[in-house]
Amino acid sequence: MVDFEAFFKITYGLFIVSSGDKTKGNGFISNTVFQVTADPPRFAVCCNKNNFTAGFITRTGVFSISILEQDTSSEIMGRFGFRSGRDFDKLEGMSLKYGETGVPIVLNASIAYLECTVIQTIDTGTHLMFIGELVQSAVLDNSKEPLTYLYYRQVKKGSAPKNAPTYIDKSKLEALKSSGPLKRYKCTACGYIFDEEKEGIKFSDLHDSWTCPVCGSEKSDFIEV
Ligand SMILES: Cc1cc2nc3c(=O)[nH]c(=O)nc-3n(C[C@H](O)[C@H](O)[C@H](O)COP(=O)(O)O)c2cc1C
C-alpha cells in the first residue's frame, strides 16, 4: 500500500527559481531546492519539463534561487506557483536584481538568494533536475524566517498544482473518492478555479482562513460552478 500522507512528512523550503537574462526571464515556485555539496557549493532544483522556466534554464545554463520569507503573500505564490509565464510576464513590476551571469533574481518576499550555473542536468521523467554551482549568494533580511512547505500547507492552507513533484493524484485517495461527487469552485474576483479532484480536498474542508492562491480573496468569495 502507498500512504501519500507519508510523503508530506518530508520537509522542504519554498523558493522562486528564476532564469533568463536581462531581456527576458521567468520564474516558478519550487519546493525541491536543496544543497547537494559543500565544496564546491552546489544546489539542485527540480523543474517540470512543462514549466516555461525549464526552457530558460536549459537555454541560458543559469538559474537563481530566491528563498521566500514565512509571510510570503498569496499574490506571490499565485503569480509564480499557479500561473505560467507563457500567459504573462511574471517578472514585470517585480523588484529584480541581475546576477553576475545576468540571471534575474526576484527580491520580492525574499530573505536571501543564490545564483548558480548549471553543471549537470538529470532527466527524472516528468522533471529535469538541474545541478547548479554557486556563483554568488547574499542574505537580504536576517530578521525574517524562511517559509517552509509545512507552514505553507498547515498555516497558510496552501496547495501545490500538478507540475509540482509533491502533487498527489488524490483521485487515488479512497477517502476522497468515497465522499461523494467532486465539485469545482470559482473565485468571483479573479476567476481561479478550485477543482476538488485536482486539489485532493473538499472545498468545504479548507480552513476558513484559506484564501485564493492567485488573488488572495477570501473563501467566501468563491461560488460553485
Ligand atoms: C507550493 C508549490 C511548490 C511547487 N514546487 C514545484 C517544484 O518543485 N517543481 C516544479 O517544477 N514545479 C513546482 N511547482 C509548480 C510551479 O511553480 C508551477 O507549475 C508554475 O506555474 C510554473 O511556472 P512557469 O510555467 O512560468 O515556469 C510548485 C508550486 C507550488 C504552489
Low-pLDDT runs: none
Distance between the termini: 34 Å
The Cα radius of gyration reads 18 Å
User: Which band does the percent of strand residues land in?
Assistant: 25-35%
Average residue-wise pLDDT: 91
Question: Which structural category do the helix and sheet elements fall into?
Answer: alpha+beta
Number of helices: 5
Enumerate the strands of the largest sheet in spatial order, edge to edge or round the barrel: 2-1-5-8-9-4-3
Q: Choose one word for the global shape.
A: globular
| Helix content range | 10-25%
Element-by-element helix/strand order: EEEEHEHEEEEHHEEHE
Number of strands: 12
Bound molecule types: flavin mononucleotide
Multimerization state: single chain
Q: Tell me about the biggest sheet? A: 7 strands, antiparallel
Written account of the structure:
The chain is 14% helix and 34% strand. The protein contains 5 helices and 12 strands. It has helices at residues 52-60, 74-81, 149-154, 174-177, 196-199; strands spanning 15-20, 25-30, 33-38, 41-48, 62-68, 96-98, 104-106, 110-123, 127-139, 184-187, 193-195, 222-224. A 7-stranded antiparallel beta sheet has the order 2-1-5-8-9-4-3. A hairpin with a 5-residue loop joins strand 10 and strand 11. The longest helix is centred in the first third of the chain and has 9 residues, at 52-60. It is globular and about 50 Å long. Flavin mononucleotide binds next to strand 2, strand 4, helix 1 and helix 2.
